[in-house]
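Hi all, posting the design record for the shared folder.

TITLE: backbone redesign
STEP: 1 of 1
STRUCTURE INPUT:
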């Protein structure tokens, strides 16, 4: 099949899992992707900065190949970036703020996957030193980590687990988590 290059490097087990759990069908992958791409003109207000096959495929996988839902997620992704431009300036691992957050373990990424093949990200909230890391830098570091990890097709299919340990999280630390900042985090992670 000419489309299987989009599934290149996937184990037979993962391809089967994608078929069973995500409704992924290699024979019509191209049509599915094109149908999502065709919806882009309905949102001229959003700059869709990437529309290649591999990129759109991520969103289809994230929404079990419901094209409308996948498109909604794709639109949300770029809209979030458009509305929070400053968060994505110098969105690289060598950005000082992001680098410091990553060095301090925000997030920690475990080497081994869980029994479902998911990647595990770990955050110890009590370790947040507010004089070193702004909440925004921690959020940027998490989003960048996910952005890099999601390049891996196995993870697009198997997914992620984000574990946050809130033990010993102080009231002083919590006071920085305003509703608007939490909203920003939740929308970004979605």
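Okay, here is what came back for every position:
SEQUENCE:
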């Amino acid at each position: 099949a000419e489309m299987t290059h989009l599934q290149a490097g996937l184990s037979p087990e993962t391809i089967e899992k994608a078929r069973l759990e995500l409704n992924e069908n290699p024979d019509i992958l191209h049509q599915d992707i094109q149908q999502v791409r065709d919806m882009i003109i309905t949102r001229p207000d959003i700059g869709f900065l990437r529309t290649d096959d591999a990129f759109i495929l991520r969103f289809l996988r994230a929404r079990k190949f419901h094209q409308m839902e996948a498109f909604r997620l794709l639109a949300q992704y770029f809209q979030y970036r458009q509305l929070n431009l400053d968060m994505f300036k110098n969105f690289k691992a060598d950005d000082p703020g992001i680098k410091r957050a990553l060095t301090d373990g925000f997030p920690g990424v475990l080497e081994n996957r869980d029994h479902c093949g998911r990647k595990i990200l770990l955050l110890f909230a009590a370790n947040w030193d507010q004089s070193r890391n702004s909440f925004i830098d921690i959020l940027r570091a998490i989003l960048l980590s996910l952005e890099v990890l999601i390049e891996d097709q196995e993870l697009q299919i198997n997914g992620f687990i984000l574990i946050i340990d809130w033990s010993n999280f102080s009231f002083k630390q919590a006071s920085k988590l305003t509703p608007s900042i939490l909203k920003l985090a939740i929308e970004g992670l979605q």
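COMMENT: Residues 67-83 form the longest helix (17 residues).
Let me know if anyone wants the other runs.
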